[in-house]
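[job 4417] fold queue: 2 targets
>>> target A
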Amino acid sequence: MKKKICVVTGSRAEYHLLYRLLKYIQKSSFLELKIIVTGMHLSHEYGYTIEDIESDGFHIDKKVDIQLVSNTSQGITKSTGLGIMGCADALADLKPDIMLVLGDRYEIFAACIAAMFAKIPIAHLHGGEKTKGAFDEAIRHSITKMSHLHFVATEEYKQRVIQLGEEPNRVYCVGGLGVDSIRHTKLLNRNELEKEIDFKLGERNLLVTFHPVTLEKNSELQMMELLAALAKLKDTKILFTMPNSDPEGMKFHKLIKNFCERNNNATFHLSLGQLLYFSCVQHFDGVIGNSSSGLLEVPTFKKGTINIGDRQFGRLSADSVINCDPDRESISLALQKLFSNKFKSQLENVINPYGNGGASKIILETIENIEVEEIIKKHFYDYSISNLKKI
């Protein structure tokens, strides 16, 4: 009898990381795939990306609408509550043997709370990471404590999950899922890309993704500083991908739209999708913003990343990542470095700390062979003082 595995997805970014694993589960002789879709996937303001999931050949078993009508702190708190209630009903109907989630967003947090009370084991992907500037940090570690299996991207993250009291034999270092996706995606050539995004590229091109910094009060100011630095780049084509449904997210949408109206060298997309996003990275000079993709995936392309501010502070990064403060002067200096011949000449030697691929296959085989009944009860693993000193 097949094990029923329920995958929850709430955002385009996390779905793209899960895509290869979902395909493996779909084809597995030992697993039955169930999918719960929630969050931004069901919002037209964020591209209604549920259609992307369906067009990829997946059957959606449950939709949990958390009504993203407000991205204030109060609105997100209410959306999280709706997510808990909706996932409770969905899980009660689906009755999965195990639930699989990735990352650290509040939609996923809601699903994990519902699964915990339903006594459904949770497999968590990309735990153990640090991000100083976002409340995702607290959510990620909370999900770790509710989870029973852990698939992490690096040895350092594995040690951090163990440090949180998780049993070492339940923590698997598999590498980054984004690298898997890159290795299995046939990218568009330059002409095909220009046609798909309806945007003519120039001699220099920049991909921008900047999300609200949820633990800081000056997120909007940081976005305005970024736009001020980008406004100086008259000889550079600029493509924005829109931010997540975090506090101040819709303010960012308006600022980006206004910027593109005033600057004919700039355009935006609500959601590029995996193929277009990776193709952009391949053909652009680099990326700028504060998205995790700039650290986890872009180094595999041997392209530069400008990482602004504290949102990703604490994550491992390659030598292709240029860190800078969230003010126009620091950003402008970072842009000068990104476009410099000296920096570009060093990119061929860049090694992505998140591995060379293969994570999806390892995760699949582990879940196929795991005895679910044996993992539901957890023991707190006391990490010794001597081990703590090694971190």
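>>> target B
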Amino acid sequence: MRRLHAVLRCLALACAFVLPGLGWAADCPPQAQFPDPSTIPRSLRDARDRGMLWRVEQDGRTSWLYGTAHVAEREWMFPGPTVVAALRGVDSVALELNLLDPAVMAALRQAVAARPDAPPLPPGLAGRLEAQVRAACAGPELQAMRPEMQVFTLLSLAARRQGLDPAYGIDMALAGMAVGLRKPLLSLETPAQQISEMVSDDPARVAERVAAGLDHLERGDAGQVLTTLAYAWADGRLNLLENYPVWCACVESAAERAEYERMVDGRNPAMADAIAAQHRAGRSVFAAVGALHMAGPGGLPALLEKRGFRVQRVPFVPAP
């Protein structure tokens, strides 16, 4: 039972950061509903494997790569038997960021906070952003963020009416499982490294990013893209993830392509090095990272193969 409560503590803490100041009224998207503790044992027993898992071997030790979804349905939070067995067998668990570390949370909050000396958005853009914040039923805590972080957060909330919520993110549930299993929980990146790819101090660049995100929110396609991405993850459809830049309608200009490559493939070499360092130091690791970081020749499986590891994807039993 201690392990199950750890999962709930993790989810509550992470939700407080991911969903700042959300309120609910009759016309608001549905509020995330966390599982009742009495139902968790059955949910764990009935859970099936979702996502993508790779066995990573070198020097007689086995580590694991697991592609996650940052936005998910509630029932997806519970890992299936193959994933649980991999978790139990390692020395440590590594995520992009350990959101259970108070220092990491404090650094994240500081990094995403609006700069008092930052130039304001152009009035028209500021009005569009305020309208989307109201539509998401978000409060002043969201508006205290940098404008581009407000938009990133709003995009992550775009599929709540379809039952997909960042509060149910797989990384968060795995962090809780790691605590329950008494596994050391590591960060593969620092908050500064991750946030630096998402924010800018250039007013023109900020306005460009905010406008691009608002275009997707106002057209209404952000939720559909997020839904397609989430279900591709749930079904283990790596080929669909590999073609994400083709079908997402979000990587169309040269600037968008450069930004996507920087935010996805550009972060992978450092994470691959961190995973390899843990393994070569004699510690097996279960490394769970957003599934887009697993795709293509610049993905983590390919990069670890180049670093001398034997990498093999683990098949999951198909859904009935």
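[job 4417] complete. Note on B: The chain is about 50% helix and 10% strand.
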